[in-house]
Amino acid sequence: MKKKFAVLSILIIFVLSIPVYAGAPMAMVEAAVNKVLDVLRDPKLKNPADKEKKKEKLRIIYKDMFDEIEFSKRTLGFHWNKFNPAQRMEFVSLFEQVLEKAYIDKILDYSNEKVDFYKESMLTGNQAEIQTKIVTASKEIPIFYRVILQDGKWKVYDVVVENVSLVQNYRTQFNDILETDTPEQLLEILRKKVKAP
């Protein structure tokens, strides 16, 4: 009896020590990307006048798909600690708007290319990389999503397009600015970028 109880106890401890995933990381990325594709393919939103409506639908998907704070923290790296709480929240909001301005037109230009989800790699116990590619008539564009498990949900914290990491790319730019300028000066640069036509 004691032996059975000991074996049962070990099994329970083993089961409890396995990370609980809210569905595999690949499933989360695939579901989110497919939601984006559904919006882009929606025949009711083909009219150029519906561009803002389409953008708003995409924003809702991205809010659910991305961990904006983790994305921002990793982009600023050690500089994150130089920002006070109010500056951090403003940075997160401005950075999101800068990214949208930089990439929204490329996303809206989507014209029924195929997206292939082909590999999931666990980077650590709570981080994974999902490898995908966009297949066009003439080429394949690799896009890797790096995701983290936060509060029982997988969220994207970096996107690597053709071997270029968004986090790394912007970290280099922001590092150069913050070598000499203050967090407030970086925020002012981002405010201007957001307001620029």
Q: Low-confidence runs (pLDDT<50, min 5 residues)?
A: 2-22
**What is the CATH T-level topology?**
Nuclear Transport Factor 2, Chain: A
Which percent bin holds the helix content? 40-55%
Q: Architecture, CATH level 2?
A: Roll
Number of strands: 5
Cα-to-Cα separation, first versus last residue: 75 Å
**Backbone structural class:** alpha+beta
Strand order of the largest sheet: 1-2-3-4-5
What is the overall silhouette? Answer: globular
Rg for CA atoms: 20 Å
**Overall mean pLDDT score?**
87
Number of alpha- plus pi-helical segments: 7
Written overview of the protein:
This protein has 197 residues and is an alpha+beta fold. It has a single domain (21-195), classed as Nuclear Transport Factor 2, Chain: A, CATH 3.10.450.710. The chain has helices spanning 2-17, 25-41, 51-65, 68-76, 85-108, 166-178, 183-195, and strands at 114-124, 127-135, 140-150, 153-161, 164-165. A five-stranded antiparallel sheet has the order 1-2-3-4-5. Helix 4 packs across helix 6. The termini are far apart.
Keywords:
disordered N terminus, 197 residues, alpha+beta, Nuclear Transport Factor 2, Chain: A, single chain, 7 helices
Task: Provide a concise account of the structure shown.
With 197 residues, this protein is an alpha+beta fold.
Topology:
Elements: H1 2-17, H2 25-41, H3 51-65, H4 68-76, H5 85-108, E1 114-124, E2 127-135, E3 140-150, E4 153-161, E5 164-165, H6 166-178, H7 183-195
Antiparallel strand pairs: 1-2, 2-3, 3-4, 4-5
Helix pairs in contact: 2-3, 4-5, 4-6, 5-7
